[in-house]
Amino acid sequence: MAEFHDSIDIAAPPETVFGYLTTDAGMTAWMGQHAQLDPKPGGTFAVDIAGYPVRGHYLEVDFPHRVVVSWGFAGSEDLPAGASTVEFRLTAIGAGTRVDLTHSDLPEIDVPGHAHGWAHFLPRLAVVGSGQDPGPDEDWRPLED
User: Fold this and answer.
1) Whether the bond into 64 is cis, omega within 30 of 0
2) Measured between alpha carbons, how far is 122 from 6 in angstroms, rounded to an integer?
3) Is 139 helix (H, G, I), strand (E, B) or coil?
């Protein structure tokens, strides 16, 4: 299994950014068209992204420092619901927040596709987190196998 790491700085305090990882409206503002979130350990993490049903559970919720979720795709044999882990670490920096993302337990073959996705969605999180509108996200598509 493999890991993917990335980070981004956001012009907002951790308390604000945290809401974009734990509320339905917050999540869909930067990623996905529909979300059903229950941000407590064992709670539902469900986000539909470009027709792909990401399903898992919240594993850890530490306001406003850390969110860990299980992640996979409903109906997938390669990466089934909850098979991988995504961790968001939020650290206050100056007037903003550094978000460090670790996506672990990924099959090696899935790393490029997830790297492509996170490279698209993390900048959208930075835009919405700083109080701006990232615009509709209708054109993004995952990498083809």
Assistant:
1) yes
2) 9
3) coil
Q: How far apart are the first and last CA of the chain?
A: 18
Predicted TM-score of the model (pTM) = 0.95
CB proximity list for 122: less than 8 A, separation 6 or greater: 6, 8, 99, 101
Residue 145 has pLDDT above 70, yes or no: no
Query: Would the CA dihedral through 47, 44, 56, 77 be positive or negative?
Result: negative
Mark out the alpha helices in the chain (DSSP H runs). 14-22, 24-30, 111-129
Q: Which CATH superfamily is domain 2-129 in?
A: START domain (3.30.530.20)
Residue-wise pLDDT for 83-95, tens only, equals 999 999 999 999 8
